[in-house]
Amino acid sequence: xxxxxxxxxxxxxxxxxxxxxxxxxxxxxxxxxxxxxxxxxxxxxxxxxxxxxxxxxxxxxxxxxxxxxxxxxxxxxxxxxxxxxxxxxxxxxxxxxxxxxxxxxxxxxxxxxxxxxxxxxxxxxxxxxxxxxxxxxxxxxxxxxxxxxxxxxxxxxxxxxxxxxxxx
Length: 168
What we know:
- By secondary structure, the protein is mainly α.
- The chain has one domain (7-133).
- The protein has 6 helices and no strands.
- It has helices spanning 9-31, 33-68, 73-90, 94-104, 106-124, 126-133.
- Helix 3 (73-90) packs antiparallel against helix 4 (94-104) and helix 5 packs antiparallel against helix 6.
- 14% of the residues are buried.
- The model has no long low-confidence stretch (mean pLDDT 82).
């Protein structure tokens, strides 16, 4: 029986809290308690400011894509990753702050965006994903073609036939 990933949350949150406290104690020991507290507060305030900015930016990108008739998935995914990064930065703690900064910087954002797109494709299927992100690239392996025999008097396509278009 496969467990849902949500079943691990009651274990993950206390572990994260413990790791955050230990990290805060280590940072406070290295730079001083006052400076560590000030750094944590500044990171949280920056996270809240970025939450607002990323939300507005994502909404405008979504509206622009909708007006232009483009699939809005890339803009939505980019803004979701940015909102997640800003939310992690807003949560008081150094580990979540570093994770939030990773999601806000371009290399981390690109990596997370690809992960979200793969997750979406795996869980929602190809039809919904192509509506969100546009047509997907398909790898075609060349080899011996399959021969299908169709009777002349049968107007239906063969059972194994898939209608489509090849774009080079």
